[in-house]
Amino acid sequence: MVIPAIKICGISTPEALDAAIRNRAEYAGFNFFPPSPRFVTIRDLPVLAERASGRISSVGVFVDPDDGMLSESVTAGRLGAIQLHGKETPERTAQVKAQFGLPVWKVLSVSSASDIERAASYEGAADFLLFDAKTPKGTLPGGMGLSFDWSLLSAYRGSTPWGLAGGLTPDNVAQAIRSTGAPLVDTSSGVESAAGIKDVDRIAAFCQSARSI
User: H or E segment at 64?
Assistant: First the structure.
């Protein structure tokens, strides 16, 4: 089985970023959704961007962003990819990809087989699909520690590369990889001591577990 790539999402401090780099995670996720406890301001971004440069690939996480927000964040954060975690249509996803010239990740929220089927509509629009757990209406779109039935992923037949998110922790990530064959695993709340507070020991344990398969 191929050892998956690792993304530590919701990083907002130099200490958490250093832990992700030290433990050889491939991606660091910076959250640009203001209601999230992991929100990174444009003011704080340059320090993180400088620290990440040449050491880890930075992914900006957005929820239905306008072009102005994307432009400002891409520049300040030296982003290597844009992750869309809202209700962005395939058309909007393709537009962002064309306009900014960066790989675009589209998050698909999953609770049933029909959510996996939606992936087909993003073929050619998104460069990468991230299957995450669907959260209750009126709550944050992600980062809540919820998981979904991983067996649903067996129905995915698309050609777009994909990854797994949603409730992944140091304790369950190895089983998730064995069950799904996920080429990438993404965690946020699973490596925190409290909402938005990354735990460097849990980051290390997550990376170790993901590579132990």
Answer: none
